[in-house]
Sequence to fold (369 residues):
Amino acid sequence: MGLKNIQMVDTKTQYLKIKEEIDTAIQNVIDSTQFIQGPAVKKFESNVEKYLGVKYAIGCASGTDALQIAMMALDIKPGDEILTTPFTFVATTETIAILGAIPVYVDIDPETFNIDINKIEAKITPKTKAVMPVHLYGQPCDMDPLMKIARKHGLFVIEDAAQAMGSKYKDKMICTIGDIGCISFYPSKNLGAFGDGGMLTTNDEKLAEKIRMIISHGSKKKYYHETLGVNSRLDSIQAAILDIKLKYLDEYCEARYKAAMKYNEKFKGIFETPYIMPGVKHIFHQYSIRVKNRDKMMEFLKSNEIPSMIYYPVPLHMQEAYKYDYKPGDYPVSEEIAKDIISLPMHTELTDEEIDFISSKVIEFNSIQ
Ligand SMILES: Cc1ncc(COP(=O)(O)O)c(C=O)c1O
Fold:
């Protein structure tokens, strides 16, 4: 017997639990008609600053924009090299390419799926300007050695924390360690808006001032433009929704962590369960494991009405638009993992019954391989 309606992400039930609060917050913004850079944005920014323990948090229109704006603020120019992982969402590399800079990929660690710290230094050249680690699936990169390498070589660090809002590395929140942190509030994220949204964080006053100008056409004073800018502001309605949800973020991360531990319990001795680096708080934006015959497993799960996803099937050095002079075989760890990784349903509303059913079907398929 199956279970109906298992979702990859269930934002609807999550919303219904706090519907009144959210609906009131939205109506308040509508009543105020301060839709752009209104008090709701300021309030949310200030609450994120407190939550993360960072001096400046600046809203923008998406996580993708946050990455581009971070590089603009750091004066990244055409031809500059940015070190990053090939095993990530396309936005990480797309924004580097848009600025005419070059993504120089560093292969990943097979346990954490994050940039392999031991392979970074070999890729540094006189053109390298920054490192962009991605805290994939909600697990922080190993930031202490990464920062040490970056400082030794005079490189900026831009944390792509699109998937990691709420996670922690030792005693520091993710997004407070590098020069700039970039967050996505895409609806399925641990802190998800009801549309697109993003944020930049920094402890550097000058950078914060520049970021504030860039998000608003490069101007501090209306119609006076001091620097190259874009139009990328966080909508007041999104900020109001996010400000309500921020209060529940730790609870949301805890629910995902509990679901991950429940999967782990079921898969013990059968699959290698997700590695958690000692000293970090992993927030399980995704629960991903490596399996045999992955594509057939996905079909089998689908026939049992269980959704699953591949994050990500093609490493970026093999994507038509971003392959530069790279070729298959250049990043063997990423390539191997892309072939057999699968992400199972993961969200705040997963029930024990659903996890039992999903894991039993994953195990059933595996046993006949
Ligand atoms: C690693 C990573 N970077 C950047 C982004 C871009 O964020 P957004 O969708 O808000 O533009 C995402 C979004 O999914 C992501 O997963």
